[in-house]
Design brief:
By secondary structure, the chain is mostly beta strands. It contains no helices and nine strands.
Length: 127
């Protein structure tokens, strides 16, 4: 990895990458990213959990225009990319996808080096 991780708190571990969520002991709502107060019941009995590394594409779209400031890096040479909602079972995660996908495809978690930072993404699992 040549760059720093965009946010260490998103991960339970980096090798192999595993996302960190939170699980509410009161109402069983799982959230990503991890939170200290449950978005379902507002309770504080939440614990940090590792999320599944594989999931299913719930839906996807192509980001075909550059983000507006402050998210755009000036003169960065924007290239379109795929964004998907990935159903991990206990929670649905929004993420970049590094390979062509269709709804229902199985995808696996990976790290994505963007040059100035490293983040998480998913790619289609080979059949």
């Amino acid at each position: 990895m040549t760059s720093t991780v965009v946010d260490d708190t998103l991960f339970a571990q980096l090798d192999p990458p595993v996302l960190a969520g939170s699980d509410c002991a009161s109402c069983a709502v799982v959230a990503f990213p991890a939170v200290s107060r449950c978005p379902g019941c507002a309770g504080t009995a939440v614990s940090r959990v590792s999320l599944p590394r594989r999931g299913t594409v719930w839906t996807w779209t192509e980001q075909s225009f550059a983000p507006k400031p402050p998210f755009r890096v000036p003169d960065s040479g924007f290239e379109p990319f795929v964004v998907a909602y990935v159903d991990l079972g206990p929670v649905v995660v929004e993420a970049r996808v590094t390979s062509p996908v269709q709804i229902g495809d199985e995808v696996g978690l990976r790290l994505l080096d963007l040059g100035d930072c490293t983040t998480f993404a998913f790619e289609k699992v080979a059949a």
